[in-house]
Design brief:
Layout lengths: L1 H17 L11 H7 L1 H14 L4 H11 L9 E4 L3 E5 L11 H11 L9 H19 L6 H17 L6 H30 L1 H7 L1
Antiparallel strand pairs: 1-2
Length: 205
């Protein structure tokens, strides 16, 4: 009985570990990212089907926000240089979603069990956010630059133009847009392979 209990614990811990994927080996190539973790590709396709946002846009967001680290969080701030007083914000996980916005997503989608350190949940969150950006502010889901400005400043902040005097943020938004365009071109070159897997590689490689 003791032996079976140990085995059960090992299996359970392995399952927990399996939920947390390591960052991709080649984060600058979307094809390589999806080849390395096909589950991420399936999650990205589900997001696209549900929200209509092209897969390269949230993938560029996630690269910018967390470099694909599931447990990314804001650095600790210190009083007098050594007394910890908390983090700059509650942003956490792949998408760096804050507590309040994540709660809004959970309520809106009825996905109360969604976790910010789960890739499928994180990319679906970005799909939901970009869709709402389109509804509220009329920004195309293909427009990674202005979608990211909404993502960073919030829908109201974007309407007020709070980003206009933040040169650093405008620079980052342009970088996100450039990455999304690059990811999009890469994705178009490997989509059939990703969709058909080993059969496509056997026939056309």
């Amino acid at each position: 009985m003791h032996f079976y209990r140990i085995v059960a614990i090992i299996v359970f811990m392995s399952a927990l570990t399996g939920c947390a994927s390591a960052p991709p080996t080649h984060p600058n190539n979307l094809c390589d990212i999806f080849r390395e973790n096909h589950g991420w590709y399936e999650a990205a396709k589900d997001m696209n089907k549900r929200w209509g946002t092209p897969v390269q846009v949230p993938m560029a967001f996630i690269y910018q926000e967390s470099r694909f680290h599931y447990d990314a969080e804001q650095p600790m701030e210190y009083f007098l240089g050594f007394i910890p007083i908390g983090r700059k914000s509650s942003a956490y996980g792949y998408a760096q979603a804050q507590d309040s916005t994540w709660a809004d997503y959970q309520r809106a989608t009825h996905r109360y069990g969604a976790d910010r350190d789960d890739f499928a949940d994180a990319i679906d969150f970005i799909g939901w956010y970009t869709n709402k950006t389109y509804i509220l502010n009329g920004v195309s889901k293909w427009d990674a630059k202005d979608q990211y400005l909404n993502y960073h400043e919030g829908w109201g902040g974007y309407r007020r133009g709070t980003y206009k005097h933040k040169s650093w943020l405008l620079r980052v938004a342009k970088q996100v847009d450039a990455r999304a365009r690059r990811y999009g071109a890469q994705y178009r070159s490997c989509k059939k392979e990703l969709d058909h897997g080993w059969l496509y590689r056997l026939l056309f490689s």
